[in-house]
Description:
Blueprint: E1 3-7, H1 11-23, E2 27-31, H2 34-43, E3 48-52, H3 60-70, E4 75-80, H4 84-92, E5 97-101, H5 105-118, E6 130-133, E7 136-139, E8 144-147, E9 150-152, H6 156-167, E10 173-174, H7 175-183, H8 193-209, E11 215-217, E12 221-223
Parallel strand pairs: 1-2, 1-3, 3-4, 4-5
Antiparallel strand pairs: 6-7, 7-8, 8-9, 10-12, 11-12
Helix pairs in contact: 2-3, 6-7, 6-8
Calcium ion binds at residues 9-10, 52, 54-55.
Amino acid sequence: MSRILIVEDEAKIARFVELELTHEGNEVVKAGDGRTGLEFALREQFDLILLDVMLPQLNGLEVLRRIRLEKDTPILLLTARDAVMDKVAGLDAGADDYITKPFAIEELLARIRVALKKRQPAATQPAHSALQSGELRMDIDRHEVTVSGEPVELTNREFELLKVLLLNKNIVMDRNRLIEEVCGYDYLGETNVIDVYVRYLRTKIDDRFGIHVISTVRGVGYVIRE
Ligand code: CA
């Protein structure tokens, strides 16, 4: 069970997310404006904070900055679609992740699970540095990828792309997001760069070992399914 703070002024959204999270067995605390949210965040202990950017009294980015001065509680930002500057500023200010509104609740829950998992101390998660999908295994600390024990040589970006997809297993990752994760959010090069890396990965892994690791979701992006 996790303790989650929702800072969101739109009561309907807050209530909806609260219901879903409590249904999954979490304890939820809500704040309807930035100032109250900041007070809760600093005074109490939370496993995760869901923070809207557009908030009355104190905006979400300012709340985020002030929390980060004192605490490293995982923070997931809720941003408006196309608010690129908010995303950039949010990640710079120490947000762990963001999700754009309107969001599918399944995606939000999946991102919350990922954010919670990332922050678990290594002692309670011995396999933390090892990611797996079928016969494919990635050891992040040793920077190694194997299929059925056979080593696979990957470039840094191929490795990063595969890592992001493995960390977000079962979540369809769109190309823009993958570019941000793999190339950095200030990347200004070709937008088909991700397709190129996926092709390299398929040559080195799927073709060589006769397996199917990365699925294409037409018009959206890529996913590694369980
Ligand atoms: Ca709002």
